[in-house]
Amino acid sequence: MKEQIDSFLSALDLSRNTIDAYRYALERFAYVVGEDAPLTVDTFAEFLSAIKEYSPSTKQIWRTAVVGLYTFHRSSDLAEVQRLLRFSRKQGKRMVNFDRDSVEKVIEYCSHLSGDLPALRDRAFVLTLADTGLRISEACALKRGDIDWMESHAIIIGKGDKQAVVRFSERSMQALREYHRACASIEPNTRMPLKSQPVFLRHDIRASKKIRAISASGMWTAIKGDPKQGIKGRIEEAGVERNLVRVHDFRHYFVTMTYLAKRDIKLSQELARHSSITTTNRYTHIGEEADKAYDEIFNRRK
């Protein structure tokens, strides 16, 4: 199967990040079903059953990669490909639903963190996520030189290798400045240019006094915690149950707040950097005129 995967990926005209994501998905596929498994609907069903506990976004990427592999190598067997496509048909996108109250509690708690470097970093990180709409991977990939500190914005390469402008709030910029001032004690004689240094650093024992970027998974562990490793995250410190806040909920919060403030779907799409307005439309059920009408009909009757 390795040769089949390599030949499929080499034929794709996609971004390097997308190809890497597909490669990982197909490696997982081969691991689950076996290197010698035939490309049949039954094999695909076995794989779907094995990954049913993963997040919807992960499952979607992995399904897309495997369907592409099947289509590439089974194109001569039209009936089999059509069966596979029917079997893997996506569900319609649902309205966005998240626990806004819990997210706001975490933001409020983190906005008052102070003291050591991890606390200052986590404060800056949560405020950055909440006020910019950055995905956690995008935030962790930021370099100091990416940010225009005078204009409070950054130009990033985001999802789909697309360049975009991200705006920072006053409170997130202040938190970042305070964090970076405190970081001055870390490897002060480093040869790494300031503009090349990561915005968010590791502060664990293994990192020592070296300037090392924190990974998305490491950052999320700091925020959510990990009971298996005895790590209590900021979510629990805020008095919120761990399972009530998901990694993408800060981005959901950002898009929701921009829409509620202006009720301008095109503006929200631009600020969220959604490639399709259909994605942004998933937020428009929040605070609609129907809510007011319902309130007048059922709650304000004389």
Give structural attributes.
single chain, about 300 residues, mainly alpha, DNA polymerase, domain 1, hpI Integrase, Chain A, two-stranded antiparallel ribbon
What can you see in these coordinates?
The chain is mostly helical and 302 residues long. The protein is 53% helix and 5% strand. The protein has helices spanning 2-10, 16-33, 41-50, 56-73, 78-87, 100-110, 117-132, 136-141, 170-182, 216-224, 234-237, 249-262, 265-272, 277-280, 289-299, and strands spanning 147-148, 153-157, 163-167, 225-226, 231-232. The protein starts with a helix and ends with a helix. The model has no long low-confidence stretch (mean pLDDT 85).
What does this entry show, briefly?
The chain contains 15 helices and five strands. With about 300 residues, the protein is mostly helical.
CATH topology term of the largest domain: hpI Integrase, Chain A
Largest sheet: 3 strands, antiparallel
Mean pLDDT: 85
| Large-scale geometry | globular
Classify the helix fraction into a percent range: 40-55%
Fourth-level CATH superfamily of the largest domain:
Intergrase catalytic core
Helices, strands, pairings?
Blueprint: H1 2-10, H2 16-33, H3 41-50, H4 56-73, H5 78-87, H6 100-110, H7 117-132, H8 136-141, E1 147-148, E2 153-157, E3 163-167, H9 170-182, H10 216-224, E4 225-226, E5 231-232, H11 234-237, H12 249-262, H13 265-272, H14 277-280, H15 289-299
Antiparallel strand pairs: 1-2, 2-3, 4-5
